[in-house]
Amino acid sequence: MRIVRKIGVWAVIGVAMVVLVLFAMPTYRQGEASIAGKTAQDFPLEVWGKPGHLTDLKGKVVILNFWATWCPPCIEETPALNRLQKYIESRNALVLGVSIDEDPVAYEKFLKDYGIVFPTFREPTRKLALDYGTSVFPDTYVIDRHGKILRKFFSSQQWDSPEMLAYFDAVLGQT
Questions:
Q1: Under DSSP, is residue 127 helix (H, G, I), strand (E, B) or coil?
Q2: Contacts of 16 (CB under 8 A, 6+ apart)
């Protein structure tokens, strides 16, 4: 009986160590450079009734935000994303929202209710989000003027905090 208990304790400790190692890996930590420098995957989009591609935005800094109307953290960060859009739009940058909502009525109502000021479109298949490596929402990628990913932010952020605005000032100052 004692030996079984010892084996059980060591098994639990082993599992805990594996979990700690996994979460310590750069791909699990906020803002790690694991994808930094990779070219952002191009995709077709339709914003405010106009078709295009992500590559059409080359020359701009793009804050690519995957979100949904039913996602509490997405709802929480929406006002700050609106304020960030207003802060960066005159500096050749934009927030680009990609909603994974299946319900077009809920999507349109959300845009109206929250006064969304940044371009956004609906991609209910989630293929684009999955292609980018996003399975939990919200998830945001900062893409530089050359189409390279600078950083990935996991979960909701206070996009208009002094620290975040300083980060974007630095990014927008780069050529």
A1: helix
A2: none
In Å, what is the CA distance from 166 to each residue of 36, 62, 83, 141?
19, 16, 14, 17
CA torsion through residues 86, 90, 93, 94, sign: positive
pLDDT at 47 (0 to 100): 72
Distance CA 20, CA 136 (A): 20
Q: What b-and-e string marks burial along 3-37, b requiring 16 or more CB atoms within 10 Å of the CB? A: eeeeeeeeeeeeeeeeeeeeeeeeeeeeeeeebee
pTM of the model: 0.80
Per-residue pLDDT tens over the stretch 39-67: 999 999 887 778 999 999 999 999 999 99
d(CA 3, CA 14): 16
Q: What are phi and psi of 61, to 5 degrees?
A: -85, 130
Instruction: Give burial (CB, 10 Å; 0-12/13-18/19+) of 148.
Output: middle
Are the beta carbons of 54 and 43 closer than 8 angstroms? yes
* 13-49 pLDDT tens trace: 877 766 655 555 444 445 444 688 899 999 998 877 7
